[in-house]
Structure formats: C-alpha cells, structure tokens
Amino acid sequence: QVQLVESGGGLVQAGGSLRLSCAASENIVSFFGMGWYRQGPGKQRELVAGIFSGGSTNYADSVKGRFTISRDNAKNTVYLQMNSLKSEDTAVYYCNAVKFDGLKRSEYWGQGTQVTVSS
Hints:
The protein is mainly beta.
C-alpha cells in the first residue's frame, strides 16, 4: 500500500508563495504519474497539476504560469511550487499517485494539506 504524505500548507497573503511537498513511501519512478488536486469550499475536487513518468507535465488553466510541479526521484518526493497566490487558490490540496501493474490500475491519495490565501 503506497502512502503519500503532504506538507507545506499554511496561511499566506495574496501574492505570496508556498511550496507543497508529497513524500511517497516507495520509489516514485515506478508510478505512471503523480499529481496535485485541490478542493475548495463548496467545490468539487479538481486537478491542479500532474507529472508523468516521462517527465511531461500538465496544469489547470487557472494555475498556468503561477504553479510548477516537479519531482525529486532520489527523495521520492513531488513538489508544487505556488507563486502569485490568489484567494481563489484557497483549498485543501491532495497528492495523488497512479500505478499500473500490468493492466491493473491503482490510485492513492494523501490526507491533504490546507492552503489558505488571505486577500
């Protein structure tokens, strides 16, 4: 069972920055992809950014140019650098990982970390 542990959330003023970390309990090179999702108050969970095993990335339109996803394979950790934060970025941020074992797909979630942006 893969465990994902997020850290780095907190309270920040609009325009500020935060870096989220997601530490995995096993080698992330074996993952198909990892990503960050968020769920704001009264909203559905949405994809923020993803990074795949080949290194390609994708972002939600709302965060393009402000957020950067990256990974450190040696530390089994994925990061989300968030700059120019806005009040609408306030949400619980969740780390996600997807693995394939043959045709069997497994998905894992972290417990979430709160990000609050004050205007």
